[in-house]
């Protein structure tokens, strides 16, 4: 009886209050998605919430992106805590680039629609360079997808002004876009988006993830990671290419990034090529992107 009384007098601990943080994700259509997460939540939790919000089933093609500065983008690691990766940053929800097997749509899927949104942003911002002709053609498919058939009564001369197709959009380009828009009569939004993708994927920089670097002689270059391998650019021109089957090993040490390549036909030994990245984090980031691209596409 005494033991029972002692037990009853022990104060009960109140359940521990879970600390939460508010998270904001900017979606590709410009809208925002807000949610509360447990303070130590991992990236996968947020990613699953965004996919559920968008009713997105093909998760393998997507990722959450955040910027450390105006240029350097980072994919949110789903296996690590968010707070260890992002500090007061806004996450964006883009699709992974380089999905060249999206072909022959009947009805454009949710994934294809988001891919179009991502590509429109990349083209309008200049991250994905285009010629005048390609800008006009892709712009015309965007208008058909967003507005439907050209209507002379409704679509006056300035109806294009609210759309951004290129970094330096001119009146001449807008007139060409309007002219081509008239030729797409009868295309459904899904068909217009499908044609947009078919033309966009032919761009030389499509699906290429660029990283600033220097070569062994200290010359500024860009390293591009894509579905097929590692590309080397100088002054926006591609000067070399290493296909994944040719690369035996990729590694990094401090701010240096290395690839070991197979010997050519007349060579006997493997060769290692090194590049200098801005810092250790940039070298690790490039290594991680290479591993992920190789894993996904190979």
UniProtKB/TrEMBL annotation:
<dbReference type="InterPro" id="IPR018980">
    <property type="entry name" value="FERM_PH-like_C"/>
</dbReference>
<protein>
    <submittedName>
        <fullName>Band 4.1-like 2</fullName>
    </submittedName>
</protein>
<dbReference type="InterPro" id="IPR019747">
    <property type="entry name" value="FERM_CS"/>
</dbReference>
<dbReference type="InterPro" id="IPR014352">
    <property type="entry name" value="FERM/acyl-CoA-bd_prot_sf"/>
</dbReference>
<dbReference type="Pfam" id="PF00373">
    <property type="entry name" value="FERM_M"/>
</dbReference>
<dbReference type="GO" id="GO:0005886">
    <property type="term" value="C:plasma membrane"/>
</dbReference>
<dbReference type="InterPro" id="IPR000299">
    <property type="entry name" value="FERM_domain"/>
</dbReference>
<dbReference type="GO" id="GO:0005856">
    <property type="term" value="C:cytoskeleton"/>
</dbReference>
<dbReference type="Pfam" id="PF09380">
    <property type="entry name" value="FERM_C"/>
</dbReference>
<keyword id="KW-0009">Actin-binding</keyword>
<dbReference type="GO" id="GO:0003779">
    <property type="term" value="F:actin binding"/>
</dbReference>
<keyword id="KW-0206">Cytoskeleton</keyword>
<dbReference type="Pfam" id="PF09379">
    <property type="entry name" value="FERM_N"/>
</dbReference>
<dbReference type="InterPro" id="IPR011993">
    <property type="entry name" value="PH-like_dom_sf"/>
</dbReference>
<dbReference type="InterPro" id="IPR018979">
    <property type="entry name" value="FERM_N"/>
</dbReference>
<dbReference type="InterPro" id="IPR019749">
    <property type="entry name" value="Band_41_domain"/>
</dbReference>
<keyword id="KW-0597">Phosphoprotein</keyword>
<feature type="domain" description="FERM">
    <location>
        <begin position="21"/>
        <end position="298"/>
    </location>
</feature>
<dbReference type="InterPro" id="IPR029071">
    <property type="entry name" value="Ubiquitin-like_domsf"/>
</dbReference>
<dbReference type="GO" id="GO:0031032">
    <property type="term" value="P:actomyosin structure organization"/>
</dbReference>
<dbReference type="InterPro" id="IPR035963">
    <property type="entry name" value="FERM_2"/>
</dbReference>
<dbReference type="InterPro" id="IPR019748">
    <property type="entry name" value="FERM_central"/>
</dbReference>
<keyword id="KW-0963">Cytoplasm</keyword>
<dbReference type="InterPro" id="IPR000798">
    <property type="entry name" value="Ez/rad/moesin-like"/>
</dbReference>
């Amino acid at each position: 009886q005494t033991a029972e009384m002692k037990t009853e007098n022990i104060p009960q601990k109140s359940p521990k209050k879970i600390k939460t943080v508010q998270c904001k994700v900017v979606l590709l259509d410009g809208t925002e998605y807000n949610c509360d997460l447990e303070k130590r939540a991992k990236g996968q939790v947020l990613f699953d919430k965004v996919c559920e919000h968008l009713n997105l089933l093909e998760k393998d093609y997507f990722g959450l992106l955040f910027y450390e500065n105006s240029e350097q983008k980072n994919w949110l690691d789903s296996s690590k805590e968010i707070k260890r990766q992002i500090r007061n940053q806004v996450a964006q929800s883009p699709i992974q680039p380089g999905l060249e097997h999206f072909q022959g749509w009947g009805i454009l899927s949710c994934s294809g629609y988001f891919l179009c949104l991502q590509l429109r942003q990349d083209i309008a911002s200049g991250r994905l360079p285009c010629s005048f002709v390609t800008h006009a053609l892709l712009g015309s498919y965007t208008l058909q997808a967003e507005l439907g058939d050209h209507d002379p009564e409704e679509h006056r001369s300035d109806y294009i002004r609210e759309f951004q197709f290129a970094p330096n959009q001119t009146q001449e380009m807008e007139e060409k876009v309007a002219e081509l828009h008239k030729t797409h009569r009868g295309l459904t939004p899904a068909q217009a988006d499908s044609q947009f993708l078919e033309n966009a994927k032919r761009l030389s920089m499509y699906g290429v993830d660029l990283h600033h670097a220097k070569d062994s002689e200290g010359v500024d270059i860009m390293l591009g990671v894509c579905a097929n391998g590692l590309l080397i650019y100088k002054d926006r021109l591609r000067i070399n290419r290493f296909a994944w089957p040719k690369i035996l090993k990729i590694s990094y040490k401090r701010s240096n990034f290395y690839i070991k390549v197979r010997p050519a036909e007349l060579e006997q030994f493997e060769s290692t090529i090194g590049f200098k990245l801005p810092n250790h984090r940039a070298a690790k980031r490039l290594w991680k992107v290479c591993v992920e691209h190789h894993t996904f596409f190979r």
